[in-house]
Amino acid sequence: MTINKNTKFLLVGLGLIGGSYARGLTEKGYYVEALTRKDKDCRYALEHEMVKKCKSGIDEEMIRNADIIIFALYPDTFIKWIEENGHLIKPGTVITDVTGVKGCIVEKIQNMLPPMVEFISAHPMAGKEVYGIENSDERIFYGANYIVVPTQRNTQEGIEACKRIGEILGFGRISELSPEAHDEMIGFVSQLTHCIAVSLMNCYEHERLEKYTGDSFRDLTRIAKINEEMWSELFLMNKQALLEQMELFEGAFNRLHDCLKNDDKEGMKEMMRISTQRRKIFDI
User: Among residues of the chain, what percentage have pLDDT more than 70?
Assistant: First the structure.
């Protein structure tokens, strides 16, 4: 599929990420409609000219008219939506998503779709520590990473269309991972970091902690302001991969603990040298 200004996009879900997609595509001159659960989110999207048309619930005509459908739903909700409404998607439509886990949903969704409807999964590595359409902002995508997650059932045309969406929205680096490799990587770079931030905010209680923190603590715990419904679902759906990454972190933390306990200054310095060397690459 070639994406052009005649392509009709349909967003399903208008939270932080769905709303940001809508803003970004509309800002670049593409035709965007949206379906969402809440009337107030539709009103917001229309009042702020994020979409041309918006309905709460299901609109069969909007679904059938779409060329590309982007699902910005929680994984379980995404699966349920396809189970109930997937038959409405016309042949030739490409669908994609923004969900944070892949192994437990991609094949399941592909198996449920009508013939000649292609699901090519993607994961925008961008967000905020707040949520909701009122916090949406297409600028969160600028320069960020965007992961396309193909399977053997995807066509090269579908993969390229998915990558093109990332380019339109301004992502800086677009890469490919298999569903299994994606979930392992996300378990480390995203879910584990949220686990660490949550653990930090749970391990020490002081009623006036904010009076004594510096930038290092604030930076480390920014993502501790967390959407518990979404992230608990993501953790459980990626349980095995996340547990493995938590155990890797526990091993490294214990090594540092033992260096300190045993006055092993050289051991600590070596871990710090490795840390500095690996982190520098992010700034290139």
Answer: 100
Using CA atoms, how far apart are residues 232 and 227, in angstroms rounded to an integer? 8
The Cα 145–Cα 172 span in angstroms is 6
Token duo for residue 188: 């480390």
pLDDT on residue 208: 87
- Residue pair 161/9 in contact by the 8 Å Cβ criterion: no
Share of the chain above pLDDT 90, in %: 94
Pairing, β 145-149 against β 121-125: antiparallel
DSSP state string for 109-125: HHHHSPTT-EE-EEEEE
Name the residue among 101, 48, 55 with its Cα closest to residue 78: 101
pLDDT mean over 33-47: 96
Tokens 């679902």, located at residue: 233
Task: Quote the DSSP letter at residue 90.
Answer: P
**Contact status, residue 70 vs residue 98, Cβ threshold 8 Å:** yes
Q: Are 78 and 97 in contact (CB under 8 A)?
A: yes
Query: Which residue spans within 126-218 are E strands per DSSP?
Result: 145-149, 173-176
